[in-house]
Amino acid sequence: MPKIKLPTSSPHIDMTPMVDLFSLLLTFFMLTTSFKPTEVAVIDTPASISEKQAPDNNIMTISISKVNKLYFNIDNGIDTSRHYRIETLKKMGEYYKIVFTPKELAKFEKLSGFGFPIQAMKAWINAADQKARDEIQATLEKDKKDGIPIDSTDNQFSNWILFARTANPDLQVAIKADLETEYEIVKKVLDILQEKQVNKFNLVTNMEKVEVKMEDIK
């Protein structure tokens, strides 16, 4: 008597739940990932053997180029609903009698660091894209009008620090100076920070270990 051959069927895996899970994960990473902001200036930082890392938020970054120009940036802190960047720019606008529209304030909140007088801020904010903003910065550099003013007649740098810390008292300071930055400008920055009751700060380095030999010590 012949054997009864049962019908065979290939195994079937329902991939629908996997696709749904992938879509959820992709959406999550897109909404939560924060991209590194564009560097406002190319700065060759000194080496260090320290492994301490600067905080990820509540940070005020002061960059000093090799030609002693100052650049400034602050973040929105842990609680982005507090809109610290907007509040800081509002105070600067009131002080220098420059009116920023709600649209300009909202746009500024999402931008990176900058290095020019407050008078050029509206043009920079309203530029079509990052390339146009870079062109504005390059034009100011060409005309030698770049950098946050720090002179005694119009110390905008001091005001940025004051209003930023008024908006967010928890701000920590990170100083990122170039290897070729002159000591005098660094000292001036530190003096202004102390005037504003900022006595603790982080120095940004490239984390490259440097071996110091006895013959190098004089």
Report on this model:
- With 218 residues, the chain is α/β, with parallel strands linked by helices.
- It has a domain at 59-207.
- The protein has seven helices and four strands; from the N terminus they run αββαααααβαβ.
- It has a four-stranded mixed beta sheet with strand order 2-1-3-4, with helices on one face.
- Strand 1 and strand 2 form a beta hairpin.
- Helix 2 (84-96) crosses helix 3.
- It is elongated, with a radius of gyration of 25 Å.
- The protein starts with 15 loop residues before the first helix and ends in a 15-residue tail after the last strand.
- Residues 208-218 have low confidence and may be disordered.
Task: Name the features.
single chain; 218 residues; alpha/beta; 4-stranded mixed β-sheet; 7 helices; 4 strands; 37% helix; disordered C terminus
String of helices and strands = HEEHHHHHEHE
Summing up helix and strand content along with how strands pair, one would put the structural category as alpha/beta
Count, helices: 7
Largest sheet, if any? 4 strands, mixed
**Numbering strands along the chain, what is their spatial order in the largest sheet?**
2-1-3-4
Total strands: 4
- Stretches with pLDDT under 50, minimum 5 residues: 208-218
Q: Any idea what the radius of gyration is?
A: 25 Å
- Into which percentage range does the β-strand content fall? 5-15%
> What would you call the shape?
elongated
Alpha carbon gap, first and last residue: 103 Å
Give the overall pLDDT as a whole number.
82
Helix content: 25-40%
